[in-house]
Every structure is written in structure tokens, then in C-alpha cells.
Amino acid sequence: MNISDFILRYWLFIVLYEAVCAFASSGAADLKRRDQGYWFILGLLLGVFALAAVLIMKKRPEELAPKNNLLLDSEQYLRSGWRVVLFLVAIIAIYYVSAILAKLTGIVPMQSFFFLFYIDVIIATYLLIRFVDRRRFFSVGIPYHGRIMKELLLGFLIGVIMIGAVGGVELAVGAIKLDMRPGQNWLLVIRNFGLSFIFFGYFAMGEELVFRGYPFQALIEGTGAVGATILMSVFFGVMHLANPSADFLSTLNTMLAGVWLCLAYLKTRTLYFPFGMHFSWNLVQSFFLSLPVSGLLTNRTIFVPTDYGPYWLTGGRYGPEAGVGTTVVIIAAIAYFLIDRRIKPAYDYKASKERLKVAGQIKVA
């Protein structure tokens, strides 16, 4: 498929994707009191780059792109691009309704509304998988198999080693200094650890469902693994522009982290492995190293950090994820995942993606 055919056939999807990238970037700039026009253009360029990379690196299989139907694929199911759009619309609609209900009932305080979002993501994921894809909910990457704990623990260990290496170098060269937080006791440390464990576990799983869950897996079916990884990693980076103190290097590192986590899913075809890495990276970075996580710093930490080193190394107020140490470590992890052949799916992935039988039809759909 040449570029002109691709644009003519998928122009609506391209417009929607570019709009999401541009307005997300512009919105982040507004929150950070920066030039919205500049960041709007940057978002557009990032989207163009991602789409161009997809066309260059992955040709669309013809069997997944019948020429006579812009809505349905060769199996007469909604195309992946439309399913991603429908997923986004479903999340917005469900969140709007849930936020109104929460506000009217007072069950959830307004400052905690962001917790609702990932609950709505789970609901939207279930609705799309069950009633649009007609598959089992566990096919989104949370199957039951005998190596769940192994994948979780392996991911947890890799995440600890990686962020430990980044923080260890900064400590070793004196770029940061950690002083024991005053007024602590064992009971308070255990309490803060428990709160951090729940908080970062919840948000790591939520982000994995958004960025490596249904939308990513739908894009794999439409553009292939390479194209889906590029698109979702760019989007992952753009969305983090809204975080405090975000800059070019932090955005680049977040995009690389998106590739790293997408590869983790592709290696195992489950969310357990990327979740373990994502969760442990954030937990260790925040609670044990007491450093900002993507620009967010809490007081539920063991130490109080002092930044003495250069910004390019420590990332300043954004934290290590805006430093070159993170760049090096994540690139090394990506290279390792690309050459490693030992990590592989522990279950029948193709069988998990089979369509559920529809009553009154002979065809498996």
C-alpha cells in the first residue's frame, strides 16, 4: 500500500490521531504556562513522525485491509482504528457520567476524581472486548496461567535493577544527597510504604491498561507490532507533557519507556510483565530513593532528597526520568528485549483471542 492509498483510506483516523497529539500537547503547554502554538505544532509533528514510521517500517497486510470496506475488516469486524476511536469515546462518556454521579452523591471527593478514570478504563475495556470484539475479557492480556507470579516477579526485579542503577549512579557521583526524613518511626514507615504500594500499583496497572491494553492490542491487529508500538509510545510521551517540569528529554525518555513496556507485552503477550517493571520502577524511585516520579514528589518517602548535580543527569524537579541515566538504561533494556529469546508467552495466545460464538450464527465470531 503506497502513501496516497493509505491517506485516502484512513484519512479520518489520521485526522483524529493528529488532533489528539496536537491538542494533548497544547493542553499540556497551557497547564505549564508555555507557548501553546509551539507545542501544538510539536504535537502535530510527533504524530506525523509516528505515522510516517509506521508506513516505512511496516506494510499493512492486504488480508487485513480489504479495498471495498472502510469500516469492517475481512472478518466483518470493526477495523482496529475505529475500535481505538470507539474506546476513547467510551472512556470520555463513562468518565463524564461517573464524575457527575460521584459529585452528586459525594461518595468520591473531587480531589480523588482521577481515581475514577482507571476504573472507567476497565469498564470501557470490558464493553469493547465483550460486545465489539466478542472476546473474553481476559484476552486483553490478563490470562490465567501457571507463570503469572514468575512474570510479575521478573518484571518487578528488572524494574528495581534499572531504576536502582540510575539512582545508584547519581548517589555515587554526588549528584543527589538523601537525608533521613525527620520524625519517622517504624509504624510510619510501614504505613507510608503501604500507601505508596497501593498508589503506584493502582496507577501502574491503569496506565498499562490504557497504553499496552486494548488500544495497543487493537492497533497491533491493524498496523502490526512495530506500528502499534511506535504510535502508542509517541502518545505515551505526549500525554506526560502535562506533568510538572516536563521537557524535551523527559518526553523522549517517556517515549522510550513506552517502547520498553510495549516490548515487554509483546514478549509475554500479557500485562503482568510490563506491569511489574512499571510498578517497581515508580515504587523504588519514589519511596526508597525519595525522588520525583515524572515530576510528582510526595512526602511518603524514607528520605528527603537534595539535588546537587547537573540537570541533565538528575532531571531536576521532574526526577531521574528527565536525565540521561534513564535514557541509557532504557535503551539497554530495549536492546536486551530485542535479542533475548528466553522470555516468551506462557499460554496459548491465539486461542485466547478467539471470538465468542454468537447465538443464531454458525460462524465463530
Protein architecture, described:
The chain has 365 residues and is mainly alpha-helical. It folds into two domains: 1-57, no CATH class; 58-352, no CATH class. The chain is built from twelve helices and two strands. It has helices at residues 3-9, 11-31, 36-57, 80-105, 114-133, 148-172, 186-239, 248-268, 272-288, 311-314, 324-339, 349-352; strands spanning 176-180, 303-307. Strands 1-2 form a two-stranded antiparallel sheet. Helix 5 (114-133) crosses helix 7. It is globular and about 65 Å long. The relative contact order is 0.12.
Give the key terms.
365 residues, 3% strand, mainly alpha, 12 helices, two-stranded antiparallel ribbon, 2 domains, 65% helix
